Amino acid sequence: MRFRTLFFTLAATLFMGASPAGANALPPDVEAALQRAGVPREALSVVVQEVGAVAPHLSWQAQTPVNPASLMKLVTTAAALDLLGPAWSWTTPVWIQGTTLNGVLDGNLVIKGNGDPKLVQERLWLLMRRVQQLGVREIRGDIVLDRSAFNVPDQNPADFDGEPLRPYNVQPDALLLNYKSLLLTFTPDLARGIAIVSSEPPLAGVRIDQGVPLSNGVCNDWRATLRPELAEPQRIRFAGHYVSTCGEKQWPLAYADPKAYNPRVLAGLWREMGGRLIGRVRDGTAPTDPPSFELSSPPLAEIVRDINKFSNNVMAQQLFFTLALTQRGSGTPEQARDLLRQWLADRFGEDARGVVIDNGSGLSRESRLSAKLLARMLQAAYAGPAMPELMSSLPVSGIDGTLRRARNAATGRAHLKTGSLKDVAGVAGYVLSHGGRRHVLVAIINHPNANAARPALEALVQWAANDTTPPSTPAPLPASTPASGP
Question: DSSP per residue over 69-119, as a string?
Fold first, then answer.
């Protein structure tokens, strides 16, 4: 990691030059879009700079600290790729304690969480299947969960925006199972006049209506017409109807009682797999001796792709706490914030002054950084060894992720992370121009009408993509540096 960090730091110092003449003039289409949205130009921060260039092509209020919303995920994921490496993975150790005879475990099954962000239903099934392959069908003790690797303060999931059942508000957990969420699927059965309701994963002790009456009409706000009753953790009801023209729809929901989710999902899945549990699922402490086996996560590069392509808040938070755990030995929010602040300061010096790190996802009203800092980080990342992993994790305009619906001149040519909050809209990443230049682009709007001004961001991306200037001639390598070879 020492070479990677040194390379990242040296690369960052190459892109600190002053703006060329005229670089402070916003493109006319951007100005017009801001005016139509009722957003003053002072609410926008912009940097557009060719990769490897000393000076930006466009710089406007680049040093002003602003709320980046989900663009903060770029900092979390870039730091993780730099400090841990793209192939790094999480392990979840499992202990089968006691004696096993004729499929009966006279003891406990212990699972220790180390922050794996993708311990989803399919991989949890594989973990429990491995337990069965080792001869356990009945557990006469308990299933013990060690969640001590993270120290997460208690927080109401409704605190941020009053939407506790939105999966993006799920809090981090050292043993995060299936994002503490469930997926409801509604499938019209015209012959029976109902929409069949199915849910995953199975939750022990939770009853869910298995059907909802069908109705005719236009499929608009289909969730509202269901008239769901979701606040009671043990019962999910639908007092309304489902419009048949909607076809099959899915509705992801955060479970109403997060503390009870792990016990319910483990007990429900174990029972569905034919297992029997005599005891209960409870929190506890893992032993210090070697585990019976370990479940490894996908590599970090794949996790980073999920985080950035789909702006997954809870996975970003898991990574945020993991950085503190692996680099500082303590998975706390304070250590994670300090680690990212120090990482930015070590690599970008004065441009990191004034940065405010609240969490790793950007789901915050307090976070602050400048467009210049984010642009320098993207320049350095492009010159670094993990460039392919970071760049390929970004949504491609008009193709996938959070930009799949974007249709403009940059379709297929822009790799951009999106950011959105009530008063924030932003994009940051790389745009390949029609002339063949690759530009770093960062644009952030902080204003009550920010989301109405998204056409200004789209106009800026199109402006960068429409550049027909051929790429700059690369600077010659120093005489002492070989052009190729080891």
Answer: GGGHHHHHHHHHHHHH-TT---EEEEEE-SEEETTEEES-EEEE----TTB
Q: How many CA atoms lie within 13 A of 405 on its CB side?
A: 3
Residues facing residue 177 across a β-bridge: 119
Q: How confident is the model at residue 165 (pLDDT cuts 50, 70, 90)?
A: very high
Summarize pLDDT for 410-421 with one digit per residue, the tens. Answer: 899 999 999 999
Residue type at 30? V
Which residues are paired to 438 by β-bridges? 432
- C-alpha 97/C-alpha 426 separation (Å) is 51
Residue 383's Cβ-side half-sphere holds a number of Cα atoms within 13 Å equal to 21
Pairing between β-strand 143-146 and β-strand 281-283 as defined by DSSP bridges: parallel
User: What are residue 213's DSSP bridge partners?
Assistant: 194
Torsion of the alpha carbons at 386, 392, 394 and 399, rounded to the nearest 10: 170
- How many C-beta atoms lie closer than 10 Å to residue 472's C-beta? 12
How many Cα atoms occupy the beta-carbon half-sphere of 239 within 13 Å? 5
Q: What does the CA dihedral 427, 308, 259, 201 come to, rounded to 10 degrees?
A: 130
Domains annotated on the chain, with CATH: 2-87+300-465 (3.40.710.10), 91-155+259-296 (3.50.80.20), 167-258 (no CATH)
Specify the length of the chain in residues. 486
Tokens, residue 251: 């509705």
| Closest to 198 in 3D by CA, of 144, 242, 167 | 242
pLDDT attached to residue 15: 45
Q: Residue 113 corresponds to which tokens in the numbers above?
A: 């969480």
481: pLDDT confidence band, cut at 50, 70 and 90? very low
**436: amino acid identity, one letter:** G
Tens of pLDDT, residues 37-57: 999 999 999 999 999 999 999
Which region, left, alpha or beta, applies to residue 338 given φ > 0 means left and ψ of -120 to 50 means alpha?
Answer: alpha
- Taking Cα atoms as reference points, which of 427, 325, 422 lies closest to residue 364? 422
Give the span between the Cα atoms of 34 and 286, in whole angstroms: 56
Q: Which residues contact 170 (CB under 8 A, 6 or more apart)?
A: 157, 176, 179, 180, 181, 254, 258, 313, 314
Residue 83: which pLDDT band, with cuts at 50, 70 and 90? very high
Structural contact between residues 68 and 369, judged by C-beta atoms closer than 8 angstroms: yes
**Residue-wise pLDDT tens digits, 424-464:** 999 999 999 999 999 999 999 999 999 999 999 999 999 99
| Average pLDDT across the chain, whole number | 93
